[in-house]
Design brief:
Layout lengths: L2 H10 L6 E2 L2 E2 L2 H14 L12 H14 L9 H6 L4 E2 L2 E2 L1 E5 L12 H7 E6 L1 H7 L2 H15 L4 H9 L4 H9 L15 H18 L21 E4 L3 H4 L7 E4 L1 H8 L3 E3 L5 E3 L33 H10 L4
Antiparallel strand pairs: 1-2, 3-4, 5-6, 7-8, 9-10
Helix pairs in contact: 2-3, 2-7, 3-10
Length: about 325
């Protein structure tokens, strides 16, 4: 084994953990397992771990599978305090704030943290070592054996079967039939954050990353999609982040939809408001879309819900 990697593994087994009435806090090892998992899945390839739905949901899933005590699964806590862990006097986890911002203390709100922190990252040498699959397996097994020996077997079984918090949340958003029979709770800020993030990710996906009105498909080699997930009935009104309360739209049509300048009939054809002002006969004009059928997902349970589009026509659309 690489002697340098052994130093990191030694540090992983000696994490400083808070003393609580429920025992030593498990937050840091759960976060480390989650970070390694994102590398394993290919979600993080550039050593930039953004505070997004993928990371927060993976942390929450691993916590629920591993931690049997009454500790609170606060993701923001280890994300900040892992910076105190060092190898040869240097931290192996660092936070990069957004331009013009500082992170000098624990930010307890996951939404505020996502706005303040551009990303966290491993010391480059450690990240390079963790790009090796054998090293990842060694590190994960060491963390499980050191901190979660009693729950390790159930954790591995659930992961192999694709079970857990993240899977349940995705099923719920995608309106999968089995989600009806599961109790999917959304009652804390982290749940709202995860659900909203998955909505933004999954709605464009079910539309093939195309604008449902124009068929436009625009992305980049950096993995960015420029097609938006648009709520039909605003989340603030219903807290409904299911995919059938969403529609994939390019940014200009997203704005037009939110402002009532376009809408949809119950037959999924496009309506264009008479209040729209645009250059006549322009190649990218919106009036030419009137009466055309929108692009629909390949599964009917993903289609925009009729009650939602009726609400949009009655409450938002300016005929």
């Amino acid at each position: 084994m690489n002697s340098t990697f052994q130093k990191y593994l030694n540090a992983f087994t000696r994490l400083k953990r808070g003393v609580t009435q429920y025992g030593l806090a498990p937050h840091k090892p759960v976060l480390l397992l989650s970070l390694i998992e994102l590398i394993e899945k290919g979600i993080v390839e550039n050593n930039q771990f953004e505070v997004n739905a993928d990371l927060v949901a993976t942390f929450k899933e691993n916590w629920l599978l591993l931690v049997p005590t009454m500790h609170q699964p606060d993701f923001t806590q280890p994300f900040y305090y892992l910076q105190s862990e060092k190898v040869t006097g240097k931290p192996f986890w660092i936070l990069q704030p957004n331009v013009g911002m500082q992170i000098n203390a624990h930010i307890k709100s996951v939404i505020r943290l996502s706005e303040t922190c551009a990303f966290g990252y491993f010391e480059p040498e450690l990240f390079l070592l963790l790009n090796d699959s054998q090293n990842r397996a060694l590190a994960s097994n060491l963390l499980l054996n050191t901190y979660f020996e009693t729950s390790k077997a159930n954790f591995i079984t659930a992961k192999n079967n694709g079970e857990g918090y993240l899977h349940d949340q995705e099923d719920f958003i995608l309106n999968e039939p089995e989600a009806v029979y599961k109790r999917v709770i959304i009652n804390i800020e982290e749940d709202v954050f995860v659900r909203n993030g998955l909505f933004k990710k999954l709605v464009p996906k079910v539309y093939g990353n195309q604008c449902s009105f124009t068929g436009m498909q625009l992305s980049s080699t950096f993995g960015h999609s420029f097609v938006d997930a648009c709520h039909i009935v605003p989340f603030s009104q219903t807290h409904n982040d299911k995919v059938n309360n969403g529609i994939a739209l390019c940014p200009n049509l997203h704005r037009a939809f939110d402002r009532g300048l376009v809408s949809i009939t119950n037959n999924y054809t496009i309506l264009v408001s008479q209040h729209l002002i645009e250059k006549e006969n322009h190649a990218y004009g919106l009036k030419g879309l009137a009466g055309k059928k929108i692009l629909l997902p390949n599964k009917q349970r993903y289609f925009p819900e009729i009650a939602a589009i009726e609400w949009h026509r009655e409450q938002v659309y300016k005929s």
